[in-house]
Amino acid sequence: MRGSFEQRIKIANGAPSGFDHLRIGLSLAVLVWHCYAVSNYDDSNRLFWAGPWRALSAAILPMFFALSGFLVAGSLGRTRLHQFAMLRLLRIIPALAFETVLVALFLGTIFTVLPLAVYFSSAEFYAYFLNIVGFIHYTLPGVFDGRMINAQLWTIPSELECYLALMVLALVGLTRRPAVFVGGLMIGAIAMTVFSISAGDQSPYAQLGGRVLVFSFMAGVAAYLYRDRIASDGRLFVLCVVLAGALLSYRETSFLAAFPVAYATVWLGLTNPPRLPFGDLSYGVFLFHFPILQALHHGLGEATTMPVYVAAVLPLSVACAWISWTFVEKPLLSRKWRIIASIERAAMSLRNIIIPVATPKLP
After folding, report:
1. CB 258 within 8 A of CB 209
2. What are the residue boundaries of the structural domains of the chain, listed by start?
3. What span, in angstroms and rounded, lies between the C-alpha atoms of 225 and 235?
4. What is the pLDDT of residues 105-135, one digit of tens each?
């Protein structure tokens, strides 16, 4: 399909369904990848981080972040800055809080080897709830021999950092100056690439860092800012897939991959297949799959194969994601503007109380 990204958005009445398919597809890719990594840890490092298949595993999270950057930039353009911040928190925090509480109070109490009185009185137990606000803790007292319960949550601080960075860039006006924004982003990517190459001491098994994800997010933002000028061309899509694969094959050049990754991701997202018959389960699948996987790994042992893990983890993760979407995420998101309006009224009332008190009376 030809035309610009903007034209494809208009053809889909502003809501291309390809992004929904892409979100759930990437979430399932994370699930399958973790099932493989847990069952074949040594092989996963050799084949997928230091071997010929590195680009496959390395593309998943940058695509997630590029997708987020494109969609979030659209949200920023339609809202005021404080509303944008509240919308992002309403999308991230409720499901994260639900998953954190369930893991700590349900899964943790089942699998801990400590007496429950010791478990519930441990500082490690209470620190785990900081996950809700983005301060990620990976272990619970006496659970899974100290192994990480929520390894996938390492991306949450990077996601929150992206939102904060975008708000700052909007505040100083750079999102209204696309050329400056994109120029600075390209210079930053080149500088990080030069630094990574000059460091010269990267492990061959080194995975992607959070900075690569931030650059991918910002490349998605750039694609949105130039959506009316970027051609939607299948040939460009293929070229960007090849280029992204080549750049992601080496950790040192992963920063430069942000741009072709963003193009390929948005191109796929702007397709318009039939809408999914269920809600947005992608975030729930992402949140719940790893604790479920670790519980199965703990119970089934080291010899369990990837197909067994996928067959067990997938339906359980989808079930938990459906519960989260149906009873936590969707009800709050359907009321998001009422919630924001209530917060704005409360803030205005508080300001009306504080300002008269703080303002000295003239004699």
Report:
1. no
2. 5-132+148-343
3. 22
4. 999 999 999 999 999 999 999 999 999 999 9
Residue type present at position 91: R
Residue with tokens 């996950």: 131
**HSE of 254, CA atoms in CB hemisphere, 13 A:** 29
Count CA within 13 A, CB hemisphere, residue 229. Answer: 6
Contact 66, 258 (CB under 8 A): yes
328 pLDDT more than 60: yes
Beta strands, E only, the chain: none
| AA letter at 327 | F
| Residue 225 CB-density burial (10 A; 0-12 exposed, 13-18 middle, 19+ buried) | buried
- How far is 85 from 78, CA to CA, in rounded Å? 12
Give the C-alpha separation, 277 to 279, whole Å.
7
Question: What does the H/E/C string look like for 58-88?
Answer: HHHHHHHHHHHHHHHHHHHHHCCHHHHHHHH
Beta-bridged to residue 231, according to DSSP, are 4
Closest CA to 248 of 207, 220, 214: 207
Render pLDDT for 257-300 as a digit per residue (tens, 0 to 9). Answer: 999 999 999 999 999 899 888 889 999 999 999 999 999 999 88
Q: What b/e readout covers 114-137, taking b as 16+ CB neighbours within 10 angstroms?
A: beeeebbebeebeebeebbebebb
The token pair that represents 210 in the structure block: 């959070």
- Residue 142, both tokens: 């006496």
Q: How far apart are CA 223 and CA 216, in angstroms?
A: 11
